[in-house]
Fold each of these.
Amino acid sequence: MTITPLMPVYPRSPVRPVKGEGVYLYGEKGEKYLDFASGIAVNLLGHGHPHLTKAIQDQAATLMHVSNMYGSPQGEAFARRLCDHTFADTVFFTNSGAEAVECAIKTARRYHHAKGNPQKHTLITFTNAFHGRTMATISATNQEKLRDGFAPLLPGFTVVEFDNLEAARAAVDEHTAGFLVEPVQGEGGIRPASQAFIKGLREICDENDLMLVFDEVQCGVARTGKLYAYEHYGVEPDIMASAKGIGGGFPMGACLATEKAAGGMVFGTHGSTYGGNPLAMAAGQAVFDVVANEEFLAHVNSMGERLRGALEQMIPNHDHLFESVRGLGLMLGLKMKTDSRAFVTYLRDHGLLTVAAGDNVMRILPPLVIEEQHITEFVEKLSAAARQYEVPKAA
Ligand code: PLP
């Protein structure tokens, strides 16, 4: 037998973290890493944040899990808080991002079904999107590497070019249920959609009674300097998937919707054994305690500006490697002129964690609690690495 006990679906790197403290991770042999990846936009509060840790410890000792058959004071309280801070009137809690997107897809379809239009079942999605790894969420993307070998895929998705409003408008037909879009593409290479695109999608939805579904799994929960990225665009979705940072490292997600959009989600239409259990709710509440206020969002914006400014200053010194910086808040991408994956590997071997993305971009997703000294350390390490890095011959 050659297969590893962990199903070998990840090309795992030699980094083997066993401990985390603030913005640092420690490997099995005591190696120290500056973590500007945050578990891919998850550890908003860094590692071992006392408020989050205590909330989870206390709740675990009080009540960890009960079935969704019973009333949920913990779920009601956190759902109320999410609704108070967003466009939404109602929330379904999940265990992951893909499940939150699944719930969003089902909610959009069921809206039209409940209105007597079951033929309106197709969501228009966008090139280079990433919505997760379930059958529906891989069917919702055009990325061949995610879909290869999993046919037959689910029908009901039409993919058009990202940020191309005319293509989106042209794709609408009698089967369209709505649009599913990341306001800021993450895996696709930190690409914020244009104002005109997002506003235009809202208008098309309003004109045709379609559902505007935002996937804010990566860009949501204060990452971009607003609680949710849609606030940058001055429009509200009908349905939104949130996950990753929402639990600060505790696996959870949420599908948020307006009362109108959730019109079809009646008893028995959806469910989850674990979704929204008391332990998850305690984690979500603790993260929200820290991030959902103006002072914290101002901190994210100010750190984002500093980091972006420092990166922009550095680019001319290494213009054989770096092209530009893009993104919002602390969701930043460094567009590279050489293979970003190879460079991310090099940085990792030198104690700096970042994440590669599509379009030759290096994602920089630090914990939102970083301070100036961490930015200084990051930029020093990045500059030193850029000076020493030898671009692989094949690149
Ligand atoms: N949607 C977006 C935008 C994501 O970035 C991701 C994960 O990277 C997902 C959905 C899927 O989330 P999960 O891996 O928690 O299922």
Note: The chain has two domains: 17-49+294-388, 63-291.
Amino acid sequence: MLETWWRGAAIYQVYLRSFADGNGDGLGDLAGLRGHLGYLAELGINAIWLNPWYPSPMSDGGYDVADYRDIEPIFGTLAEAEKFIEEAHSLGIKIIIDVVPNHSSDQSAWFKEALAAGPGSAARKNFWFRPGRGDLPPNDWQSIFGGPAWTRVPDGEWYLHLFAPEQPDFNWTSPEVHAEFHDVLRFWFDRGVDGFRIDSAAVLIKDPDAEPDGKDPYTDRDGVHEIYREWRRVSDSYGGRILIGEVWMPDQEAFARYLRPDEMHTAFNFAFLGCPWDPAALREVIDTTMDTHAPLGAPPTWVLSNHDVTRPVTRYGRADTSFGHDDRKHGMPTDLALGTHRARAAALLTMALPGGVYVYQGEELGLPEVEDIPGALLQDPIWERSGRTDRGRDGCRVPIPWSGEAPPFGYGTGEPWLPQPASWAQLTVEAQSADPGSMLALYRKALLIRGAELGDGTMTWLDLGPDVLAFRRDSGLTCVVNLGPDPVPIPAHSSVLLASGPLAGDLLPADTAVWLR
Ligand code: GLC
């Protein structure tokens, strides 16, 4: 029997560097995380997904992996990671880790060997080394982080990096690369991890020598699916450990092809994440999601935030609530009270939908995006690569406020690697635990109900007018969200299980969601 827990799971994303600092260096670590496992168990989540924890020069927050089989010393040791997996399992929490197959760090043994071995060597064939066109790079591809996608090495060749220069792309036409990653998956499955989140999963196959064919030169190219078929055979051989794709792709049919029964188990629903706070747009995304997943038997996922995107209370507090991952809208006027009000409603919508749900650390506290981090402290490579025009993603990576009245808010004893706003005193776990009306209290109650009767299954729309999203789940629970400007009547029910804000008698106010029996 293969495992199925993931079909309806609530998965909590831990950005380790910013979760809790156990040793006073200002950077989160495994000791800090282990110290707060009780908090996560109490929150009612089923699994933790950790961003990369491998040894890394941290040019891109750990997405530049120097060694896929060890733990970054800032975070702890391999022995500690094994202990952590055991402890989480004993609390009934599964562990998902990140794997980064598109690129390594330029400090990985493989890349250093390739550099030293020189042009034409076997070691260079595991990356994309090419001669240039005179003083120009081999082609004009641009890096996703800005600037050219090629960097020249002292012997004159250039190597490809879709992201930062410190992240050379692997060449997936090399059988050695395939074998290496099968072995990496096994290494961690043998240590008990329950699955992988696959970074940049759709961009592994590319041919920089080919003439442009009018399609995206590196997204969703032929051959990429074969990689995940191979991986699925590895994960199935471990009794059904899971593969979760980071697949950013507007074409939902193409997206769903990654979820065929012999490929990944699930993938992040970025169409939902990027959707504006608008009833028609949300309904369309939800319908498309259900329609493309159902024929494959794959459960959808629902995501409001992660370590790459502007936090929801900020996004929903702006005049334009849409979001594109290269259109962060930094510095737009924001009404945080409105944003928070909507984010509460969005949380109830998201957690009621059929399938799995992700909660990014701090989302349950309603943390806003921090938009005034001094430039000198920003660490996201996007800041420098964009010529300091795009402040990047550090604003959603600010360390978590746990307790107390002033920074570092119980995060650790050292100075946090990014400054926490003083106003977060009201948003600490401690403060919110004492307040039944807090965002944290809402997430706790919602996750509890969700664990008992939501998750995997089906939904039936109810028609309550164009401003309202309303649907019934298999258990009979009905979710009603009012996205219009005026209060609407609440449909007949025997009890109100949970509401995102105060109700007005029999009316559901604007930007409010309710779960009914
Ligand atoms: C993914 C990660 C992001 C990282 C990029 C390159 O999009 O989520 O944080 O910068 O891949 O690895």
Note: The mean pLDDT is 97.
